[in-house]
Amino acid sequence: NFSGSYSTQKQSISFNQLASTKKMCSESMDQETTMSDVLSKAKQWEITGESLQLKDTNANTLATFNAVYFN
Question: Considering only CA atoms, which of 58, 54, 57 is closest in space to residue 34?
Fold first, then answer.
């Protein structure tokens, strides 16, 4: 679980004061560490269709999130 704040200005994004639960489950820790890394490096965002991409300062894609609909 993550908590924190973010701010955007046009296509720029920054995540601030990130905190996580740091639950002791080895599989979850790898995912949590990776997500924390992505959020701290994300400086740009882009939405294409139903996908959100977080990018670094050089516009390299760090993560892609796709919309999921539940009925």
Answer: 54
Q: Is residue 63 classed as helix, strand or coil in its secondary structure?
A: strand
Sequence-ordered alpha helix ranges (H) in the chain = 26-41
pTM value > 0.85? no
Angstrom distance (rounded) from CA 42 to CA 13: 7
5-11 long-range contacts, Cβ below 8 Å, gap at least 24?
8/45, 11/44, 11/45, 11/46
Q: Please, what is the Cα angle at 27 between 57 and 50, to 5 degrees? A: 45
Give the pLDDT confidence of 20-69 residue by residue, as tens digits: 766 666 666 778 888 889 999 999 999 999 999 999 999 999 999 999 99
Closest-CA residue to 40 (of 9, 8, 13, 64): 13
